[in-house]
Design goal:
Layout (H helix, E strand, L loop, with lengths): L1 H21 L11 H19 L8 H19 L10 H17 L13 H4 L16 H15 L4 H10 L2
């Protein structure tokens, strides 16, 4: 029974993550068909499951940045033909991977993730000069700068812990 419960939670985490990552991101090309969109959702779920396995023990900031880049490259390679601008933007990749890791962490499956999911709700908690629209973020260096500002705001809490409270408004 425990395995069935875990499988259900992971399926819900994948589904919720894909929906939240794509709904406002304008990720699809204007010519993407419904089957193209479905293929992207399937590719995202598979990549989330694979990358999520890499977080069973703590992952450093540097390794996590590498994973975000690899995640974006993988989806771009598999689905670039029906993605806007031909690739998955870093902002969408970080939101997907970070949100999925947040679910796994909250379920007690993995240790605290190195980052948090950056979306408009979280970015609004940062100083005005640091606020970048996550849906257009397409540069790992700009993402890294966003993380650095958020870590300063979050201190002394870990970024993931701070975001959990900030997202809930507590």
């Amino acid at each position: 029974m425990l395995d069935a419960k875990r499988a259900f939670l992971h399926e819900q985490a994948e589904l919720s993550t894909v929906i939240a990552s794509l709904q406002r991101a304008n990720a699809y090309s204007s010519t993407a068909s419904e089957s193209d969109r479905q293929a992207l959702r399937i590719a995202l779920k598979a990549a989330l499951a694979e990358f999520g396995e890499r977080y069973s023990s703590p992952v450093s900031h540097e390794v996590h940045l590498k994973h975000i880049s690899q995640f974006a490259q993988r989806i771009s390679s598999e689905c670039g033909g029906y993605l806007a601008s031909g690739h998955l933007r870093i902002g969408v990749a970080q939101k997907a991977l970070n949100l999925y890791l947040k679910f796994l962490w909250c379920y007690g499956t993995i240790p605290t993730p190195p980052h948090c999911p950056f979306d408009s709700r979280v970015i609004a908690k940062l100083p005005p000069e640091a606020r970048l629209p996550w849906t257009r973020l397409d540069d790992l260096a700009a993402y890294e700068a966003l993380v650095a500002v958020a870590k300063r705001v979050a201190a002394p809490e870990e970024l993931a812990v701070w975001e959990l409270h900030a997202y809930q408004g507590t």
